[in-house]
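Quick question, first post here. What does this chain look like in 3D?
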Amino acid sequence: MNGSKKLRIAGWVLSILISLFLIVASASGKFTQWEGKAAMFASLGWSEEVIVKIGIVEVAIAVLFLIPRTAFVAAILLAAYMGGATATHVRVGDAFFVPIIVGVAVWIALGLRQPDVFRLAMGKPSRHRQAQQAAK
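> Answer (accepted):
Ran it through. Tokens below.
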């Protein structure tokens, strides 16, 4: 097994772990009833009517992140979602590092799965673009 294949596998493992975290640890709490749920979300500025909708969005993005054709768009959506989560936690004085870590991990996972993501982030042309330029 060569190095790039190992990196892609690591990217997939990280992607699955991120999606599982989003669905199991975060979204599931938005769909179930537990003591203090309403008070906790109210302290963050979210009403009970919105909580389930947020959970649906979270699950949808987590699933889209696992589909290769939609992973890049899902990473953008996850970055926006995690930005909103970070802003919410900063606004109320909570610990805000978890959404930042998840947001960074999303891009690392995608970059490992699709190395062109790292190339584009560094301002370099993708392999596809390099091949097109070489063919001219």
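The helical segments are 3-31, 37-43, 48-66, 71-92, 97-113, 116-121, 127-135.
The CA atoms of residues 86 and 97 lie 7 Å apart.
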